[in-house]
Every structure is written in structure tokens, then in C-alpha cells.
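Case study: Integrase.
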Amino acid sequence: MPITKRGKTWHLRRRVPKRYRSVDRREAVYLSLHTDSETVARQKEPIIWQEQINSWEARLAGNSQDAEERYEAALNLARLQGLRYLPAAKVAELPREALLERIELVRKQDGVVDKQAAAAALGGVSKPPIRISRALDLYWGLARDKTVGMSADQEQVWANPRKKAIKNLIAITGDKPISEITADDMLDFRDWWMNRITVEGLSPGTANKDLTHLGDVLGTVNSMKRLGLTLPMSGLSFKEMEAEPRIAYSDDWIRNKILAEGALDGLNDEARAIVLIMINTGARPSEICRMRQPEILLDDEVPHLCFAPIGRRLKTRNARRRIPLLGVALEALRQFPEGILRYREKPVSASGCINSYFTEDGLRETEGHSLYSLRHNFEDRMLEQKVDERIRRDILGHALGRERYGQGGSLQFIRDQLAPIAF
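Here is what the predicted structure looks like once written out:
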């Protein structure tokens, strides 16, 4: 870049690129490098030029018809001028010296006022309101830390209820600015949910989840964007009834119905494998679907699963565990040593497929039974076999309620404990 000395100070001279002619009509710019040392000047010239580029880019953004882009451009342009952006009302309250300093900054050498610089320095760009739908768009970026380590399907499962909650709120209140959400709006939303609970038979827990997700989205945007709003989100939850306990399949039903010859032939191979693996491991369907090849150790002295956060986030820290493979579970995984690829990103689809098949083919012991009931049967079998509580909790990925000491027993020992109950 050409630098020249004007008097005792080195300057950078560059032509104004065509991209920025709409915001700077000069043919060329002279930028002071604020030094009389040529060595220092050459070190500073790329930095000063980049600052000038940033200034032009901010001015271009300020020409946008998008209110948010104009506001962000004003913030950036103020920062590039060494100022903190303040709304006009706050600028008017500044001490006289500080106000005059801002006014002088926006004058060009010919005395003409730079309108965009003036808007940035004097607070001439209004902060755009954030509507409810826009709050959700902003939320994804502000809540990135909550999805670290998730697989694609885990992130989708995490995002969907938040999308649904925002959609439900907009259906009741309209897509208004979040600063205008009133206590009456939220009571109307609660009344809407109350009607669904009483008329459609939905559970209070479902409504409470919607309220929780709304609080998460709107609260995060309010906090991270420093809006300083008091959102009327408290005191809205519904009293929940005691949840019905999940029902376990009986051993006889598994042996004589689910494992009867040909009973699972109507399932695709991967879905059938999920059922068989669950029967002898008690693993969650989502864990079986998402496991990767390094977690399937078929050639070890004791073949086993070793659940780890590979390509996904585990449900809890207790979900990292080892489970010996026996009987039908071992046979099933020998067919799929790379994992259940068909359902790796679709555990919900896998559960839906299997539950539908169980219903259509009479494999549910009662209407209350589901695929997940196999996990509960596995715990019942361990309990009846008098397997130690530490081992039961370790295998199922449950919290122990105290610090875990040691490995919880060798794989050989755990395998021998489970062998008598394996199908």
C-alpha cells in the first residue's frame, strides 16, 4: 500500500473502491498513520486500511431497508468512531463537552455533515422492536451452547418443542413485539391451554412444557440482548397429576409372544434388532439407534456395549456405561456390527414403527405397554435375580445417589450376574 509523508506524519493514500462509492464520493482517501516513523507506519497501514473498510461496510449496511441491519450498522459505526451508541434522548443528556465532541466527529473536512455518521454518533437510528417470531430466530444463535455435542436428530428433537411453543403463542397473541407482551396475553394463552386440557384430554404436563419452552426462548433473548424487559411469565404453570408408572412386560409374554417364532418377521431387520437388543440390555431405544461402531465391542473377551458421547450428546453423565451382550442381543448385534444405520438419526421413527407393529400384531401385553416396557422388564429381571443395586443402576444409566467408587465390578462378573436372566 502506498504511504506518503505529509509534514512530519506518514499517511496512507488509497483510491475509494467502487463498492463504496455510494457512501463515499471521494476519488481517494488520505488516512493519517499518526507516526513520524516509516517502520511504524508500514506496520500500521494494513490495520488502518481495514478500519476504513469496516467503516465503509457499516455505512453500506446503514443504507439497508432492514431495520435491524440499520441499527446494527449504527452500533458498528459508533464503535468505529470510538463511541458507545446511545439513543438520541441519552445523547441529549450528555455533558456539553461530550455532546460537542460527537458533533465534531461527524463533520467532514468541507464542513458537510456525514448523515450516517451523525445518526450513529447522535442516536438517530431507533432500536427496532423484536417480534415473537424474530425472538425465536435470534434464540438459535444465542443458545448455541445448549446444543454443543448434539447429533443432528438430537438438535431437531431439542428445537421442535420450542418452535411449537412459539407458534402456539403467536396463534393467541399475534406476532407482536415481545416488549408488548402483557400479563393478559399470557393469561389468555393459559386459558387456551386450559381448554385443551379439559376438552382434548391433554395433560397439564404438556402445557407446562410449552410454558417452560416459551420462558426459555423469550428469557434468553431478553437477557442476552440486554433488553431489560419484565416478561409476565411467572405463576402460569398447571398443577400436574401424579404420573402413571410405566408397565413392564412379563417374562412369559416376552418368551411366548414377542420371541415366538415368526412374531417379529413383519419388522424390518433393523427394527427387529432394536427389540432384541433392548430385551437383554435394557438400553433406551434412542441409545441403541445412535450408537456408533466404536461402542460395539463384539470381539472382546466379554462382548459388550460401551456407550460414549461419540457423534452425539448422552442423556446424562450416567448414560456413559458398559453393558455385557448376551443371548438374542448379541446375536442381533452380530448382524449390525456398525450400528443401526437405518435409524441412527431417526430414533423417534424407530419407536413409532415398532410400537405400531406391536399394536397391529397383538404384541402389546396391555394397551399400557409399549416398546419402552422392555427396559422395565429388564430391571425387574435383574431385581428378581438379586443383582446388586449398584450394578442395576450402572447398567440402566441411572444415578447412584452417592459417589461412585471403583468400576462397579468387572465385565466378566456383571456378565455372570446377567447370564441367568438372558433370553
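For the exam, be able to explain this: The chain has a mean pLDDT of 86.
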